């Protein structure tokens, strides 16, 4: 006898599959489309994006620490929508996969570039797994919550966007700490 449980499971799995298909289509599009790079004010974009995540971090009893050393306005050549997607993917991953209760975001201008970094506690023992972290469908581990677990496409999408921007990017994973970072050259009078 079906009490509706099977229908709920099928509905949930259908929704997850549709989400994965959407992300695959987005990844394919991001790899082939021409980006519309324009002067983009990064400080306001970063501040607004971080603010959007504060409630989610509080809800999970996590502290989001922001070390913002950017000038009031700092301009980069970027597709603002796609750069926001990068910030959202990195914040979302930290929220999902941090093994601690603290995530640290830092941003500064150094050597004519904006340097962004997000770091949290993580299991860093398996170096071979960390070498695959930018690959499509690779999921390092289950998230703290099954409901928040991802498809393994977020970092692939992030890498694709950063490559199209000509950004330097990468990750570090050592001694129980993981960090993801990128840098973009500043334009105009923002250079330090």
How many angstroms separate the termini? 69 Å
Number of strands: 7
Query: Could you name the ranges where pLDDT drops below 50 across 5 or more consecutive residues?
Result: 142-149
Which architecture would the CATH scheme give at its second level?
A: 2-Layer Sandwich
Strand content: 25-35%
Class by alpha and beta content: alpha+beta
Please, how many helices?
Answer: 5
CATH topology: Heat Shock Protein 90
Q: What's the arrangement of secondary structure elements?
A:
Blueprint: H1 5-32, E1 38-41, H2 42-59, E2 63-68, E3 75-78, H3 80-97, E4 102-110, E5 113-121, H4 127-130, H5 154-164, E6 168-174, E7 177-187
Parallel strand pairs: 2-4
Antiparallel strand pairs: 1-3, 3-7, 4-5, 5-7, 6-7
Helix pairs in contact: 1-5, 2-3, 3-5
Primary descriptors:
alpha+beta, 26% strand, single chain, 7 strands
Written overview of the protein:
The chain is of the alpha+beta class and 192 residues long. It has a single domain (5-190), classed as Histidine kinase-like ATPase, C-terminal domain (Heat Shock Protein 90, 2-Layer Sandwich), CATH 3.30.565. Helix content is 41%, strand content 26%. The chain has helices spanning 5-32, 42-59, 80-97, 127-130, 154-164; strands at 38-41, 63-68, 75-78, 102-110, 113-121, 168-174, 177-187. Strands 1, 2, 3, 4, 5, 6 and 7 form a seven-stranded mixed beta sheet that branches. α1 (5-32) packs parallel to α5 (154-164) and α2 (42-59) runs parallel beside α3.
């Amino acid at each position: 006898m079906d009490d509706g449980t099977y229908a709920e499971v099928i509905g949930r799995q259908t929704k997850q599959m549709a989400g994965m298909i959407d992300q695959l289509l987005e990844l394919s599009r991001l790899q082939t489309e021409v980006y519309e790079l324009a002067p983009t004010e990064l400080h306001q974009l970063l501040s607004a994006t971080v603010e959007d995540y504060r409630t989610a971090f509080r809800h999970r009893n996590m502290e989001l620490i922001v070390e913002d050393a950017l000038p009031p306005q700092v301009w980069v050549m970027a597709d603002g929508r796609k750069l926001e997607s990068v910030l959202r993917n990195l914040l979302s991953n930290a929220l999902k996969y941090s093994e601690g209760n603290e995530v640290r975001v830092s941003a500064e201008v150094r050597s004519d570039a904006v340097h962004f970094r997000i770091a949290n506690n993580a299991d860093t023992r398996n170096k071979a797994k960390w070498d695959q972290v930018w690959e499509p469908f690779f999921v390092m581990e289950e998230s703290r919550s099954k409901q928040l677990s991802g498809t393994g496409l977020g970092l692939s999408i992030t890498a694709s966007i950063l490559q199209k921007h000509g950004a330097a990017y990468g990750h570090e994973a050592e001694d129980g700490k993981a960090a993801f970072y990128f840098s973009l050259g500043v334009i105009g009078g923002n250079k330090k």
